[in-house]
Amino acid sequence: MLSNKTALITGSTSGIGLAIATALARKGANIILNGLGDKALIDKIILDLRTLSLGQVHYNPADMADPKQIHDMMSEAEKKFGGIDILVNNVGIQFVSPLEDFPDDKWDTIIALNLSAAFHTTKAVFSFMKQRKWGRIINIASAHGLVASPLKAAYVASKHGLVGLTKVAALEGGGFGVTCNAICPGYVWTPLVENQIESTAKARGLSKEQVINDVLLAEHATKTFVTVEQIEALVLFLCSPETANITGAALSIDGGWTAH
Ligand code: NAD
Question: What pTM does this model have?
Answer without folding.
Answer: 0.97
